[in-house]
Amino acid sequence: MSIATKSDGETVGNLSLIAAHSHITGLGLDDHLQPRENSQGMVGQLKARKAAGVILKMIQQGKIAGRAILIAGPPSTGKTAIAMGISQSLGSDVPFTAIAGSEVFSKELSKTEALNQAFRKSIGIQIKEETEVIEGEVVEIQIDRSLTGGHKQGKLTIRTTDMETIYELGNKMIDELTKEKVIAGDVISIDKANGKIAKLGRSYTRARDYDAMGPDTKFVACPEGELQTRKEVVHTVSLHEIDVINSRQQGFLALFSGDTGEIRSEVRDQINMKVAEWKEEGKADIIPGVLFIDEVHMLDIECFSYINRALEDDFSPIVIMATNRGISKTRGTNYKSPHGLPLDLLDRSIIIRTEGYKEDEIKSILSIRAQEEEVELNADALSLLTKIGMETSLRYAANLIAVSHQIAKKRRTDTVALDDVKRSYTLFIDSARSVQFVEENSSQYIDDEGRVQLSKNEDAMDVGA
Ligand SMILES: Nc1ncnc2c1ncn2[C@@H]1O[C@H](COP(=O)(O)OP(=O)(O)O)[C@@H](O)[C@H]1O
Ligand SMILES: [Mg+2]
Question: Fewest CB within 10 A of the end CB: N or C in the chain?
């Protein structure tokens, strides 16, 4: 059976942009893995960041597959932020997948299938292939559009220093050329297998065409020799992408919609065998990536057993988990254990602990967030937000930045002042005040059994099913 590793679709980039952490560009460590006090958007939490740096090194050296890392600490202490910092430092060649524990419970997929897909998204396969390409400098592109629109025809003249050829163009090639904005003087490479065009740069011979130059124009030499050459190309796909491409006719479409359904285990078995074979033959390398499971205490015992098993697999990513639970029950059991994790999994885990922040650290983080959101805070506003951050949570205080900004704008000013923060603090309550409010007014809410009390002196009445 032949296994496809390429679709004609676009390659799917990592779109998971987590806005609350957009200020984080790395772990903020120096060359000796020592944490800087304030660097790459990261502030404080030095021990945990240093530990994360050691893990990062081990991941990069491929020394740690099959292990799990648990980041444990109170809410809002930067657990997710540290995982994002690791992800940013890994670079684009190492797959990084982030899911929240609760995401595995959906009605489309069983929870183990959802986990299986997340695991396979986190394993990269680097495939080396020889492909035939046409590489040269574009001399001329001629496109005739028929009057009715639909059909397009054209000619592409392309040369090397030694030869020049004219190719007839069909609809698809014309679209590719238009999409890549190819013009005369560009040096391009056309993959003969799938018709994909890559712009390699502008030819030096056109260095004086100022019109066609942007500030970051890259100049390259016009290729020599034959137009058609064989080239070794390397592309990286995840195991999951290979699964999807091969499990349906329209596989790559499913990659876009994210609606992949359950993948049959025979398909995966065949793919695993093929990948192992490619590895033997030196055609492919396996790159264990990172699977980050946030709020891991949301998983139940079956999920944990699955993870335990999956970590022993030949293809296993590094699993990083985060939790804010102390001693608590593992879902689906009656057992209590540290962080709500079953002991066998805990036993395999390296634990990184995060701690609460000091006042000046909260202040720095909030001012970084304000900068990131392009909000100007005056000194009093920042001090009050910091106080709120200390007394409630960092996340709540950070959320008030945008709200206060809206309130300031109503006063037709762009700088957030003390009163704007005060008003947003009274408009939106934090969780502690919310809990207090609910407790004081519990009779007005619907309880778990569907009962609600409509007026103070009435008995509870049943509203629910
Ligand atoms: N050490 C830090 N440096 C910079 N920003 C941080 C740091 N710790 C937390 N943050 C930011 O504070 C907010 C809350 O942190 P988060 O990582 O979500 O906490 P947790 O996952 O522990 O509940 C996020 O916006 C996060 O990016
Ligand atoms: Mg978190």
Answer: C
Q: Specify whether 53 is located in the same domain as 159.
A: no
Q: Is the pLDDT of residue 252 over 70?
A: no
Q: Is any ligand 1 atom within 6 A of the Cβ of residue 363?
A: no
pLDDT tier, 248 (very low <50, low <70, confident <90, very high otherwise): low
Q: How far apart are CA 284 and CA 239, in angstroms?
A: 12
- Residues 429, 23, 26, 284, Cα dihedral to 10°: 100
Q: Judge if 207 and 305 occupy the same domain.
A: no
CA of residue 198 relative to chain centroid, distance: 25
What CATH number should be reported for the domain holding residue 261?
A: 2.40.50.360
Same domain, 195 and 102: no
Domain span at 364: 359-428
**CA dihedral (329, 333, 338, 339) positive or negative:** negative
Whole-model pTM: value is 0.75
State whether the beta carbon of 49 lies less than 6 angstroms from ligand 1.
Answer: no
Which tokens sit at 461? Answer: 């009445």
Query: What separation, in Å, do the N-terminal and C-terminal C-alpha atoms of the chain show?
Result: 54
Q: Which of 136, 161, 133 is nearest to 224 (CA)?
A: 161
> Ligand 1 center to residue 372 CA distance, Å?
14
Residues 6+ apart with CB under 8 A from 416: 370, 375, 376, 377, 378, 381, 401, 404, 405, 407, 408
